[in-house]
């Protein structure tokens, strides 16, 4: 199908973008990469009066480290992440996730910020950012606020971003020494939504004790989901086959998948358990490497 008629604006500053958002209100949509918005418009699931293209706004396309925080601009492309040496050095999980996002054409335009702002539990970055305990920077005409990732997702395609605000940055705490991270998802074919996905970050001290665990789940809950009981099952303990099995069982039990053409509920729960085990193993190996 063809999208309904709309006005197109391409502001060159955040202030200009905020003015447009105030003008159009709920009838405006922000365009960054467009790989979520444009298909929805073609299917008439979204028919905004105005598209505000923020790609000409400077300062939103950088990956920088400031002290103990790694900052990813909202317009950073997935392909850019693939070659961000310092980011990948400290967070190898991004090397995992980017290669699993659709295909090179999509990664050349798709943005990390757009992936999060879309508010879809089937996207990859929500689970990853949960595992990393990230925060999201949201800017508006009245100022900027920082929202922890656990408080960012409100419902299906619904986030903490208000109609007159723009997601401008993602902030990730730098990991402690001996930290590893990993992500994988099961999909029927390249570019399909995940049947299930699991993101893990672990810190393991010199005695082999897990001092930090972050686990996020993809597309097995109406909202992006933190596997909280699984995290608790690991922290303060050695990473053994027994503790890994317990964490995997909790993740499988606590998720809330729906049956669809990718599998029934029990199959998806089983896949969450399998992926949780594998990603804990992988993250733990990277932590001590």
From TrEMBL:
SMART domains: CO_deh_flav_C
Keyword Plastid included in the entry's annotation: no
SUPFAM superfamilies documented for this protein: CO dehydrogenase flavoprotein C-terminal domain-like, FAD-binding/transporter-associated domain-like
Organism for this UniProt entry: Fibrella rubiginis
Keyword check for Oxidoreductase: yes
Name of a matching Pfam family: CO_deh_flav_C
InterPro entries (UniProt xref): CO_DH_flav_C, CO_DH_flav_C_dom_sf, Diverse_Substr_Oxidored, FAD-bd_PCMH, FAD-bd_PCMH-like_sf, FAD-bd_PCMH_sub1, FAD-bd_PCMH_sub2, Mopterin_DH_FAD-bd
Any one GO MF annotation of this record: oxidoreductase activity
Ranges of residues in domain FAD-binding PCMH-type: 1-177
Top-level taxon: Bacteria
Keywords carried by this UniProt record: FAD, Flavoprotein, Oxidoreductase
Protein name stated in the entry: Xanthine dehydrogenase family protein subunit M
């Amino acid at each position: 199908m063809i999208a309904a008629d709309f006005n197109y604006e391409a502001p060159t500053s955040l202030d200009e973008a905020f003015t447009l958002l105030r003008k159009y209100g709920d009838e405006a949509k922000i365009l960054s990469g467009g790989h979520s918005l444009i298909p929805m418009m073609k299917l008439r699931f979204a028919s905004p009066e105005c598209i505000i293209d923020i790609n000409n706004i400077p300062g939103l396309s950088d990956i920088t480290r400031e002290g103990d925080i790694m900052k990813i601009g909202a317009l950073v492309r997935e392909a850019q992440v693939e070659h961000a040496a310092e980011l990948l050095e400290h967070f190898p999980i991004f090397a995992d996730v980017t290669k699993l996002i659709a295909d090179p054409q999509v990664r050349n335009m798709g943005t990390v910020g757009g992936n999060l702002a879309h508010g879809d539990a089937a996207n990859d970055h929500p689970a990853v950012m949960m595992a990393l305990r990230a925060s999201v920077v949201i800017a508006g005409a009245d100022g900027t606020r920082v929202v922890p990732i656990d408080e960012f997702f409100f419902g299906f395609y619904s986030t903490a971003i208000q109609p007159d605000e723009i997601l401008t940055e993602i902030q990730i705490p730098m990991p402690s020494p001996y930290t590893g991270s990993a992500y994988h998802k099961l999909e029927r074919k390249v570019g399909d939504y995940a049947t299930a996905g699991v993101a893990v970050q672990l810190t393991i001290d010199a005695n082999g004790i897990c001092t930090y665990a972050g686990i996020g789940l993809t597309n097995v809950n109406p909202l992006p989901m933190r596997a909280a009981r699984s995290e608790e099952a690991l922290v303060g303990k050695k990473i053994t086959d027994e503790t890994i099995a317990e964490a995997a069982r909790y993740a499988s039990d606590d998720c809330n998948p729906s049956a669809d053409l990718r599998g029934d509920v029990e199959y998806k729960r089983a896949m969450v358990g399998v992926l949780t085990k594998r990603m804990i193993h992988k993250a733990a190996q990277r932590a001590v490497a």
